[in-house]
Design brief:
By secondary structure, the protein is an alpha+beta fold. The protein is built from four helices and six strands, in the order αααββαββββ. The protein has a six-stranded mixed sheet. α2 packs antiparallel against α3. The N and C termini lie far apart (62 Å).
């Protein structure tokens, strides 16, 4: 009987929590979390500026990129990501906020929300997850995944792009 009551309580508690009001759980800022966050920001700058060299400096070629949308999931290799970054003529701009950084030893995860703009216009938003490893005493992105939500389902706190 106790198990049934406990199960009902847990089911009720999990279903009624408004997760949008929960505070982010993240490690306290320190040199390691700051360096992990810096790598993620630099990667987003590489995307936003079509900077192939910066992308290759922060991303391992052997990894993958995963995109999750309502119509399914797709992936490409980081090598393909490099080709697309170097060949882009489209003006991309990506911003993130409220990153959550976790690490242990030489493995780290950064999870963040983001918004994305194409040619100066808002395109979509979502969540991104980056898996990083430390190589030669420097953090690098191995794999990353992101959701691509439709604009009507986005609520970026950063507002419009300021030129």
């Amino acid at each position: 009987m106790k198990k049934i009551i406990l199960s009902c309580f847990l089911f009720y508690a999990c279903g009624t929590v408004d997760r949008s009001t929960m505070n982010s759980v993240r490690l306290k800022s320190d040199a390691t979390t700051d360096s992990i966050e810096h790598v993620v920001k630099e990667m987003l700058i590489a995307i936003s500026t079509n900077d192939l060299e910066k992308a290759k400096y922060h991303v391992l070629e052997e990894g993958r990129v995963f995109r999750v949308r309502n119509d399914g999931m797709s992936f490409r290799s980081n090598s393909e990501f490099f080709k697309q970054t170097g060949d882009q003529t489209t003006d991309y701009f990506e911003r993130m906020w409220d990153p959550i950084i976790m690490y242990r030893g030489d493995l780290a995860v950064a999870w963040t929300t983001y918004d994305f703009h194409l040619n100066g216009k808002f395109s979509h938003c979502g969540a991104e997850s980056f898996t990083l490893t430390r190589v030669d005493n420097r953090w690098m992105v191995m794999d990353w995944a992101y959701t691509a939500n439709e604009p009507e389902n986005c609520n970026s706190p950063l507002g419009p792009i300021v030129n």
